Amino acid sequence: MSFDHITTWIFDLDETLYPPSAPLFPQIEARMVAWIVRVLGVSKAEADRLRARWWHDHGTTLAGLMREHGHDPVPFLADVHDIDMSVLTPDAALRRAIADLPGRRIIYTNGTAPYAENVLAARGLGGIWDAIYGVEHAGHAPKPDHAAFARVFALDGLDPACAAMFEDSARNLAVPSAMGVTTVHVAPFRDPAPHVHHHAPDLTAFLRGIVTPGRPRPAALGPQA
Prior knowledge:
Elements: E1 8-11, H1 25-40, H2 44-58, H3 61-69, H4 73-80, H5 92-99, E2 104-108, H6 113-122, E3 131-133, H7 146-156, E4 163-167, H8 174-179, E5 182-185, E6 198-199, H9 203-210
Parallel strand pairs: 1-2, 1-4, 2-3, 4-5, 5-6
């Protein structure tokens, strides 16, 4: 597999740059449910059902709240991302593998940029990124919406034909693939969908395997903050 044409490396955040086994997203989901209970006055069971349906139908729970209830995204995002990051551990090997990638390295998450910075700090992955984009940079439109990708890619100025994207959600790779991005599904099992070009059950090992000797590498690593 050749990635010699890649000049921009796009990484999702949640369950891509930390293991799915890390108890981070369950905290977020619990806070989402509690928020829906407070705001809509429904039972916890109904709130959890709505959360799951909105994720399925709209891409994120927030998108469902906004589209079906006209909800303000800012307080919701601040609340649901107020979680315990101590459940994450630093990963020096992953940091090195990402920092060794030639070209620009960016984060694009359905979370917020401040939340992403907190996750990266807890994982020891701070200081190695050229840009961090959250859902706010997409006008609160979520992946997998085409408009979300188009807005973030335009904001960054990247060339999709020279970009690779790493995602734990295969459905979030369909639009980038159609735009010309090389896609990598970061997950234990391969998804057979045609828009999934590569499979990375171990992200660190995969990244180590695609850096071509002799290609320019980035300067010294930035601080881990």
